[in-house]
Specification:
CATH topology: TIM Barrel
Distance between the termini: 31 Å
Number of helices: 12
Order of helices and strands: HEHEHEHHEHHHEHHEHEH
Largest sheet: 7 strands, parallel
């Protein structure tokens, strides 16, 4: 919940020239709902994608304050689903993540599905249990063809906005063992390896290279650093160098 429409336009106008110069990686901006239309206009004709931060699973109806997948798809190609803040503050569950991901398929949106454990779960050694469950329950019942277009983001809740990022080695192991293995159970090994996996959680220009150097990490879901032009552009450049 950052940036008014005017502020979002100014931020995107400032960073988009540098982002357009970076080739070889997929770049997506996900502003709040109110800014999707004006930012879409700014990104028209560029190679920078646009995504929403959430959506509802129903196509229409009396769901005051919610936004349907079809509404998102008027401006976006991507949508974030199951972000830890949605789970923590707004009652998001594995079941609603599953419903939203299925709805994204109907509207031809690419879902960025977030999974990750809390600090208490991490410290009690439950990372494997929690992350694997979120993958299996959140993505169950989706057809094989669509599954290969899903993006999964591992964002340990204890690392989000805390400045306490996971290590690259730890994030790589979680994605390898607790994300790709359940994905292989659901869709087969080939599909599991083709699904893009991102790391999110206090990613900065200083530590981005550490994450992008890991074999299982295909990119980053960037939070606070995306609000700083130089910082975000540096992260994108680090991804391009790794690619």
């Amino acid at each position: 919940m950052n940036k008014t429409i005017a502020e979002a336009r100014a931020l995107v106008a400032e960073m988009s020239p540098a982002l357009r110069d970076v080739k070889g990686v997929e770049k997506v901006l996900c502003p709040p709902f109110m800014s999707l239309f004006p930012v879409a206009a700014l990104l028209q004709g560029t190679d920078i994608g646009l995504g929403a931060q959430d959506m509802h699973w129903e196509a229409k109806g009396a769901f005051t304050g919610e936004v349907a997948a079809g509404m998102v798809a008027e401006f976006c190609m991507y949508v974030i689903i199951g972000h830890s803040e949605r789970r923590m503050y707004f009652g998001e569950t594995d079941e609603t993540v599953n419903k939203k991901t299925a709805a994204a398929r109907i509207s031809n949106l690419t879902p960025i599905v977030c999974v990750g454990e809390t600090l208490a779960e991490y410290e009690s050694g439950r990372t494997a249990e929690v992350v694997s469950r979120q993958i299996r329950a959140g993505l169950k019942g989706l057809d094989h063809e669509f599954a290969t277009h899903i993006v999964v983001a591992y964002e340990p809740v204890w690392a989000i906005g805390t400045g306490r990022a996971s290590t690259g080695e730890n994030a790589n192991a979680v994605i390898r063992d607790f994300i790709r293995k359940p994905l292989a159970e659901l869709y087969g090994e080939t599909a599991a390896q083709s699904i893009r996996a991102l790391y999110g959680g206090s990613v900065t220009a200083a530590n981005a290279v550490e994450f992008f150097g890991q074999p299982e990490i295909d990119g980053a879901l960037v939070g606070g650093a995306s609000l700083k032009v130089d910082e975000f552009v540096a992260i994108v450049r680090a991804a391009a160098e790794r690619a």
